[in-house]
Amino acid sequence: MTPKEIVSRFFQEGYTNRNYAFVMDCMSENYIDHSPAGARSNADAVGILKIVAEQYIYLNAKMIDIFAEGGMVATRVLYDGLHRETGRHIRFEALENFKVENARIVESWGYWPDREIEQKLNAQ
Fold this sequence. Notes:
Layout: H1 3-16, H2 20-26, E1 27-33, H3 42-55, E2 56-69, E3 72-83, E4 89-101, E5 104-111, H4 114-122
Helix pairs in contact: 1-2, 2-3
């Protein structure tokens, strides 16, 4: 798979399908997440995905834009889900970038729009 295909599949398998075995395989054991979540391994990344899965009955990740040059992949992703605690449907976009080496994700940079998500979940 190309770096672009690996990253695209990471979103599909990790968020939508909750296929954590694929995530373990597509990420380096020494994976580093430069976002506030701060994972430091593929196992940490799976742990974070599981926390997200507990918060949403479903959460689909749809690739809006994906660009790759060499081993760097930039994405704009639309998340669409049903929040478990509030029962609210939510949609938001996030920008995330990845570095892929030897067919594995080794680093990522990205931030979810936490304030926007919180506002949508607390809206009257």
